[in-house]
Amino acid sequence: MSWGTELWDQYDNLSFHTQKGIDFLEKYGQFIRDRCQIEMEYAGKLRRLVKNHQPKKKEEEDYQYSPCRAFKLVMNEVNDLAGQHEVIAENLQTHIIREVNMLVKDFKEDRKKHLQDGARMMTSLSNQIATLERARKNYEKAFKEAERALDNYQRADADLALSRMDVEKQRTNMTIKSQQCEDAKNEYANQLQKTNDLQAQHYQHLMPDIFQHLQELDEKRIKNIKNFMTQSVDIERSVFPIINQCLDGIIRAADQINEKEDTQMVIERYKSGFIPPGDFQFEDLSALKSGDAQPMIINNAITSIRPEAITVRGTMSANKLKKRVGIFNIFSSNKNNLSPYGENKEDYSDLPPNQRKKKLQQRLEEISAKIQQETAARDGLMKMKGVYEQNPALGDPMSIEGQLNESGHKLDKLRQEQHKFQMYLEDAQDNGASIMNVSPSVPGRRLKSQPPRLINGAGQRNHRHSGGSGGEEESLSRSASDSSVSNPTTNNKQSAPGTPLPSHNSSHSPESGLGTSHTSLPDSDEPEPTDIDGNAQPEYYDADQLPALGMCRALYPFEATSEGSIPMYDGEELHIIELDQGDGWTRVRRQGDTEEGFVPTSYIECTLFNNS
């Protein structure tokens, strides 16, 4: 099947057909483009849906229940689904729409070129046919004139009245016309031969080649449309595994919903610790005097308050209680009109027993976490200062004395606060048993928690431990002794600086000059470290004698903003002279140089030497 042989005379129709094919390819490209836009809009709406249904800050407490936790997981999976639809749109845009645009451009150019060649060949054939027609007409005209000249000569020759000159004139005219007719005949035969040759070449070779190119162009277009359709399906199928994972994640989130666990959580959240009220006592009014009946009725009305009104404090329904205001509240301050169920006291003594113990335990956990964080930061300061003392070229040890003092004050305050809340918790536990046995049916019957026995007990205990000296000096020396446990004087090795990474925006970094040792604390009289014979030990190490533990390569460029750290460029190889001690920093030295300092551990790739 060839357009050149089967459709040799359908030039115009083939031109129209190829144009329609290119228009259809453009239409398919627009379809893919619109689908990409729909996929992106769908992904954007999914992300907006997830964002709009994220829990508000006031709803975070309710998201401890399993359906709410599962719903958060479902929203995360839906957000991932949105990402997969974005991947589909991006891949369609990259692999299909771009190819379609390039093919449309190429097809238009090739079609135009082939049609121009075909038009030029058809014009050439038409011109040749026109030349043949002119030669035929000239031959026909010359033939008629030659016959007319011959007829005139024959009549003149037969006419005896004419002179010989007239007869000779007609004979000469006949000869000229006959020669012209012969020339026109030869020209006509020559043009006929040329036209037949050109026409045969045109319909047997030239135009079939043009039609063959157009046929190949159209077949290529059809094949590419088929490939684009298949490729679009492959692009969508490629994200099916991740979409299935998202759907499986939704199933797993639903499986985590546990109604029994939620029931227990509701009990723990709202349980007051009181026992149900007892029976109302019968009041025999006949045994009373008529004068005493009215006070008894008033007292009975007071004691008939609903029990749940007493235990509602500290529960979710307490948030819905309205403030009681007088009729003239416009002249009073909002502070004076606050409900007694408003803000909790510091010791949470206005909450039911169970709720109070729960709040106190949460508060103690928060304080303990802060103490651990501050202790780790102080240990980092101690280590950094020790490094500065052993190698002053890295920094001035006295530059972080203020930070050490501030850290000591923070630790003192946190420990005092921890002790205070421990006393609150002990008090709540001591009073818990007696409160559990009190019926809340009558207002005022519930025992109010007593204030802690030692509100300032932390300060008093510190005073006893310090032997009457200031709490600040005692806490500093105690923190120093605690930190020196990780740096025993019998080890001839200095730990790496205990500083967090710069990305944490902490002031405890090599740039800020952290680090200290217990031998240089404020008001510290501890002797220098000695060995078992009582001789003073030398410094932990000398900078020129630190052996290389391995090699490291910089994964990212790092700029040192101040003393203690050194800059490095991407791909630079350095010697490791001290490993990361858990603070996020590694001590390195440049190759062939004595410059050394600290760099972030997450910025380098380490390879340690095999010492075995």
UniProtKB/TrEMBL annotation:
Q: Spell out the SUPFAM superfamilies in the cross-references.
A: BAR/IMD domain-like, SH3-domain
Q: Where in the cell is it found?
A: Cell membrane; Cytoplasm
May I ask which residue range the UniProt record assigns to the signal sequence?
none
The UniProt entry's GO CC annotations, sorted and at most eight, read: cytoplasm; plasma membrane
Low complexity bias spans: 477-486
| Renumbered residue ranges of the record's region Disordered | 434-538
Bias kind Polar residues: ranges: 487-522
Could you tell me which Pfam families the record lists for this protein? FCH, HR1_TOCA, SH3_1
Q: Which family does it belong to?
A: Belongs to the FNBP1 family.
| Name the record gives this protein | Formin-binding protein 1-like isoform X1
Q: Which organism is it from?
A: Thrips palmi
Q: What is the taxonomic lineage of the source species?
A: Eukaryota, Metazoa, Ecdysozoa, Arthropoda, Hexapoda
Gene of origin? LOC117641245
